[in-house]
Amino acid sequence: MSIKSYRFDGGKNLRLQEEPTDAGEHKKEKAELVSRTAENLRKAAMLAEKLYAAGCEGLVVAIQARDAAGKDSLVKHVFSALNPQLLEVHSFKSPNEHELSHDYLWRIVQALPPRGKVGVLNRSHYEDVLVVKVHHLEKTYRLAPRCLGEDFFEKRYRQLRHFEDYLYENGYRVVKLFLNVSREEQKKRFLDRIEREDKHWKLSTADMKERSLWAEYDAAYEDCINATATQRAPWYVLPADNKWYTRYLVSEILLETLADMNPEFPPLSASELALVPSVKAELESGT
Ligand code: ATP
Ligand code: MG
Predict the structure, then answer these.
(1) Residue 287's pLDDT is what?
(2) C-alpha–C-alpha distance, residues 20 and 249, integer Å
(3) Would you say the CB of residue 95 lies under 6 angstroms from ligand 1?
(4) Is residue 202 lining ligand 1, measured as CB closer than 6 Å?
(5) pLDDT at residue 191, rounded to an integer
């Protein structure tokens, strides 16, 4: 099954209303896709080991979604398949005073993995054109008037495109995932957080109030994805109502991206290679 239909890289326009939020006809293939997920992740983990050994390219996966769309569970069930030594996961919350006194990419840059690793951004630089836009937070920022104005978000979209181009040209791949959950499924998951004591720690009444801004978020996601979807840093708009299906799609994206990066174990250097016979002989003759 191809993930192409979920990919946005500038070649087509996104209309969020037209995108599926559930697995649809793929529900009948559930058993097969669940076992494909495990197989994909096994292969992705092997490629990630090579990426780590080679150390010349890094992968950044930005996960964006509405509340309760399954960001945390994606990290737990999909990215956990990779060796923890080569994985860096960073969750972005509302910026504090100190973070707000810097440019908005400052905290993102610090969270990027070194080349060789896979960095997962659980929320990301995209919050700065999503929640900020929906709540007009830029109006509360201490910023010179010349930095504000009508084209504030257009400028940010351009900055984000340039930022990701910069990363690409400096040895990173950037992949952006939008977990597209339906209003009904989000309601169910919120009710579950209320019912189950073991989920109370995830419960936030503020998250529930955000539901009244559903259409505003729709528009903000659509604008931002259309403005920042590029070949080098594509968006994937993924149905998120069936977690097993989202996990399957992400396993495909991870495998395809790593395969395209095509990492190789580095060979021994000529000087090390020259020493191998004597070191081997020494090891074999000793205890
Ligand atoms: P869940 O999906 O389980 O609700 P979460 O990712 O929402 O998890 P929380 O700790 O509930 O995690 O919330 C993080 C909050 O931080 C979100 O409401 C998000 O919009 C907000 N946030 C993240 N980055 C920014 C930003 N740059 N500016 C303003 N708010 C931000
Ligand atoms: Mg939340």
Answers:
(1) 78
(2) 13
(3) yes
(4) yes
(5) 94
pLDDT score of 2: 81
d(CA 124, CA 100): 15
How many other C-beta atoms are found inside a 10 Å radius of the C-beta of residue 276? Answer: 10
- Phi-psi label, residue 58: left if phi above 0, alpha if psi -120 to 50, beta otherwise: beta
How many angstroms separate the CA atoms of 210 and 216, rounded? 10
Q: Are 90 and 120 in contact (CB under 8 A)?
A: yes
Q: Which residues of the chain have pLDDT under 50?
A: none
For residue 189, give the ligand nearest its CA.
1
Tokens of 113: 């993995």
Whether residue 164 has its Cβ less than 6 Å from ligand 1:
no
DSSP state of 83: -
Closest residue by Cα to residue 95 from 64, 66, 137 = 137
Closest CA to 173 of 89, 231, 220: 231
Task: Give me the domains of the chain, ranges plus CATH numbers.
Answer: 3-285 (3.40.50.300)
156 lines ligand 1 (CB under 6 A): no
Q: What is the pLDDT of residues 54-68, one digit of tens each?
A: 999 999 999 999 999
CA-nearest residue, atom 25 of ligand 1: 94
Ligand 1 in reach of 113 Cβ (< 6 A): no
Ligand 1: atom nearest CA of 67 is 2
pLDDT digit string (tens) for 212-264? 999 999 999 999 999 999 999 999 999 999 999 999 999 999 999 999 999 99
127 CB less than 6 Å from ligand 1?
yes
Is residue 142 helix, strand or coil?
coil
Q: How far apart are the first and last CA of the chain?
A: 54
Distance (Å) from CA 213 to ligand 2 centroid: 14
Residues 71, 181 contacting (CB under 8 angstroms)? no
